[in-house]
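User: These chains co-purify. Model them together.
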Amino acid sequence: MKSGGISKYILYALAVIVTVGLLVVMNGPFFRDKPDYPIDYPVEGWRVEYQGQVFENARLDETNIGASEKGDVFRASHALPDVEVDSACIRVSTVLCALDVYVEDVLIYSFGHDRGAAGKMIPTRLHFVPLPENYAGKQMDLALTVYTDNAFSGFLPVTVGNRSDLQVQLMQDYRLQLFTGIFLILFAFILVVMSVYLVVYETSSARIYCSAFLLVMLGFYILSFYDLVDLLTDRPELRTIMEYAAFYLMPAAATAFIATIQEGRARRIIGGLAVFDAVCAIVAFIMHALGIKHIHEPLPLFQILFVLYCVPLFIFLVYSLVSGKKLGRRKSDVHIRASEMVLLGGVSYLFVAAIVDLIRYSYLKFFSRYGAAYSDISTTTHGALIFAACLIVNYFYYSIDFLNAQVMHERMRGLAYTDPLTNLANRTRCEEVMQRLNGTTDPYIIVSLDVNDLKVVNDREGHAAGDAFLSGFAKILTDIFGTDAFLIGRMGGDEFMAIFKETQHVKVQSLLDDLAARMQAENSRGGRFRYDAAWGVAGSDEVASGIASDVYMLADSRMYENKNARKRAKELSRKLEGGRHLHG
Amino acid sequence: MGRRVSFVLIGFLAVYTLIMTFMTLMTVQSTYPMTELSGGFDVELRGETYENIALTEMEAEGIGEIKKGDVMTISRILPDTKEVPFPTLSIKLRYSAVEVFLEDRPVYSYKMKELEDGAFIGSERHFILLPRGAESKKLTIVLHITRDNAFRYISTPVFGDYDDVAQSFLHDYIFSFVSGLYLFIFGVLFLVIALLFARRVPEMRVTLASAVLCIVLSGWILAKHDLLNLFFSVGNKTIVEYSCLYLIPPIVAAIVWITKNFVSKKIFLAYSVPLYVVAGWNFFGVLTGAFEINRFRAPFYIVVFISIVAVAVETVFCFRRKLETANQIQMISLTMLNLFFIGEYVLYFLEMRYPWVQSHLGGTMMPAGGMLFSLGQVMNFFIFVTQSYVRRAEAASLRRMAYEDILTGLPNRASFDREARQIDTEGVRYGMISLDLNGLKETNDTLGHATGDRLLSSFGKLLKEVFGDVGFCARTGGDEFVVILRGATLSGTKDDVERRLLILEERLKQLDKTDGQVLHSAAYGYAFSEELESPTTHDVFLLADSRMYDRKRAQHTVM
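Assistant: Joint model of the two components:
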């Protein structure tokens, strides 16, 4: 597949085009419905009244109110547009307040007082307030009543237009957020299902669950922030819980995830941070459920916590990225390093995105005229998508590395210990076995064998024949010794050895006699090769040191004696037979 | 096998749980009264009036075939319920331009201009906002039919508050909605990743195709259930719907092709090429305006049905042929997708025939198929793509090992044999040097194998340094090395060889100084193919080897 020549740069370019294209199409003005009717965005010319102060001709987005108190009522008034549209409504969002809407001092809409008066939390909600007929030019008043402290920090944008237009505009403006939020949640679900099988492969399941957790929190948060949950469910409480759960647990999710990338002490510390935040969040939820404190009340605490977590974690991430340390378990793993880099890159980008949004929020809240109500998390949305992509790539590399390790392990066990030519144990394995026998009380006998004339065969017929010669001999050895020997191995070249867990030399001797007989039979059959071998035997009881390799050396030296004796005998017989070549 | 089956089961369970969770969690209650207008309509067509009928029973009530150019008027008194803030009628209409009147006042119109231009009008779900106080007023819908047999019935319209109606609709199709969105982003993400890795990891080519399939699937799911235009204003949603639909089987076939999961190439082409032909034909029609995109649905259904059956059969064969797990998973995913595809259409046709069949199930068939397919892709991606990649790398390294001597890094004897065979076939001139490392056995015996290994590897390195640029150096045996000099001639190369051998000797002596433990010396002999008459490499080698032995004996007498 290396040919099929699409240059990889073309593919990279395509990747970039697709990514940019997605963002441009989703975020841009493409494929948007033009509204059927004019839409009005009254920003200027408001009369705003709160805490005893009156502001004439103010901008609605410049009313940064600061701290609100229980019982406060905030009023904003403006003239409705002169041009009337069909099925007109006012679209406005309220956070934790009750809303009353008047047209020409007549109450046309009311929300939240029942819950507020009962001490329950008033959920965040997007309102579409229907306007009566002939509303053109009349005055509208919006009154927001606060039932708990610190619940309000600014008026959200007011839009007037056709009901259908406004709905479509909402969906199309935030389609990327909607797609992303839903994707994140479902993908987390898929990961959890996959974890059943990835666990089978022993990849770290903690990491999968933590990444799924983080993805879900991100998804919840994105959906809630943009009032998109209201599309899916009628229950405002569900939406509020999603929103706050996501925000409160986000630090826990992020730190837990980062902890799974770390080792040792760093892992414990960071994991501890995660647990701490999770516990705080759970406490906040319990208090809400028991009615002690509403879920939004600890918000400032959690905002501080968020910042406190963000900063050191971010520094830590940058350090890890820059130094490349503390990554993976083995330094030689190029794949792990690359994959962890990608993941750290993804998490870092997410952090940067979140911090950017956080800074914008804080700036708006504390420093600008506009108020925090106008913050948005579009950067975090992109960050979440990129993070998901990095996560996928990381798993890809991680799996490769894991499988590599597995394969290497098997290879070690197989190849490292097997002589490829004869399939007997190789020298490494023989030595390892011998080492394990050191000092053992069980008696054993070692035979050292040397097959003759390998070089002759190599020279006469080439090395391939030499291989066949050796493997033929190995087969004979396995046939004769097979079930009785504890180990049969090739020590190298033409040297073989066998270990018997045996006390009786007689038994071993009879096997060796069988071997001689078998070789004789092979030779007289007129096979391709003539086999002739010398051997020496030594028992563990003959060596005082108890070291197996000494036993082997003893056997080996006896083998040499045997070899030399046989050579002398052959030469003698040759002389006697008058120069007749016995080596064919 | 058991693992695979249990995975499939878990997959089903997971998807089922997902559906149930969504159905229960995302419940909607209408804030205001919402009514299904199942009856009470007056229908007027071609001068005939049919009174008080249900729109789903049009055929039964005797309303005949609808022809292009007909104008059908449907009217009804809206229910006398409590006033709702944004009265809305939700109704799905096909192949018609629409005008809606409330008490003879026009309140809504759809594609009337396209009607004039004769442009293609597809099917659409309309959310018709009515003026406040529409309850118990007369509603009239005028349909300008643009196609023969445009529809046999109209599914029950719903009347209520905008929020309630919209939410109820969304809730009915929540699974399509959610999975459509998910598949789109999933497809794009995996597409980008596959593009980035496709060159390095050829297994990812399948991922490319699967990612595109997910995107197309999402387009179809969203368009078919009227969800697409909530987010994207497309000129004609029906064109998008059918474009995506026509693309699905070809991409499925492409996946089968890429993974080579077919039994016979000819049979595969026989049932796959028609898919492309049909798709191409339909796109041609749309682009040239020759005919509407869904005019020729019958050929499409036939061709697709055949390919679905074929793919299912290929899947069975996949198991029979004991293909790799990755391929099996891929085929199972595709077949499940196909089965749900069929399921969707079975339900659709059932609904056409028997309008009382709840179409809600139809909203879950394809999405479920899509989700399962996506699950299969993720599984494939993570586990098997990586496995395959690793195995290939492993095979490459094993191959290297087979031809490489581990200790010295030089080509081993297998490599040498291969090179020698090559030379014999090519018939070029060459020279050979046979080298024998002296004293290896003694070193092994007296100083141990570790030292012997060291001796070997330093000699190997040295040989490569001295001869590497002109010859193929290999370790052919325990202490035996060979250098093949391609293109070497007696006249031209001999002096160079002598020179280099001298350098070798010098370096060996140097090694003696630096590593005093061992004596570094080698015997060597060389021969050229020109010296013999039509020799084989073996002959030349033997000649070089015998000269090496001569030298060795000479060395021994000196020592």
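The longest strand of chain B covers residues 87-94.
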